[in-house]
Amino acid sequence: MKMILKIVWLLLVLFIIIGIILEWQIISFAYNEKPKKSDVIIVLGCAVYGDIPSPFFKARLEEALRLYNEGYGRYIIVSGGKGPGENISEAEAGKGYLLKKGIPEKAILIDDKSFSTYENLQFSKEIMDKKSLKRAVIISNKFHLKRASVIAKRVGIEASFSGVFVRRYINEEIYGFLREVVALWYIYLKR
């Protein structure tokens, strides 16, 4: 019985150490990664309320506007399908938001089929290939960037990253940083 308790205790300690290492990777990546001049800016999908971007999605779109206006990319890919409670796809809501902010329609490309970060990046890569775009800046919330970087590498996107942190929703942001440990662990174990 003592041997079993020792093994359980060692496994618990191992899980805690791995969790701490993953959390460090997530936070370190989030605050050290900087965008680089690229061909395209990819905005990862996020919730839409009816047809209005959620506060997290709006922050991502505002970051895309800033980077586009500063010359970080000639195009913006807005990704995300239509989820439950959404009147239109996340990509369409993002496109509408960017159009209202003065981005030319020809500069906005959409992926309205994706329902996960993996699909966001996989379908964005397909769009990049069709347009012969080689390098991207990927935008999401800071807590999401490390996982997005692992997936981007797997689908073949050469990328830099730019993250947003919505202070008004600090509890949700902190929860995101904590939840990402499990999501990143899953991504590492998946392949």
Automatic annotation (TrEMBL):
The keyword RNA-binding does not apply. InterPro entries: Cell_Envelope_Assoc, DUF218, Rossmann-like_a/b/a_fold. Keywords: Membrane, Transmembrane, Transmembrane helix. The keyword Transmembrane helix applies. Residues 39-159 form the DUF218 domain. CDD domains: YdcF-like (cd06259). The chain crosses the membrane at residues 7-27. It comes from the Bacteria. Coiled coil: none annotated. One of its GO terms (cellular component) is plasma membrane. GO terms for biological process: Gram-negative-bacterium-type cell wall biogenesis; peptidoglycan metabolic process. PANTHER family: ENVELOPE BIOGENESIS FACTOR ELYC (PTHR30336:SF4), INNER MEMBRANE PROTEIN, PROBABLE PERMEASE (PTHR30336). This is DUF218 domain-containing protein. It comes from Thermoanaerobacter wiegelii Rt8.B1.
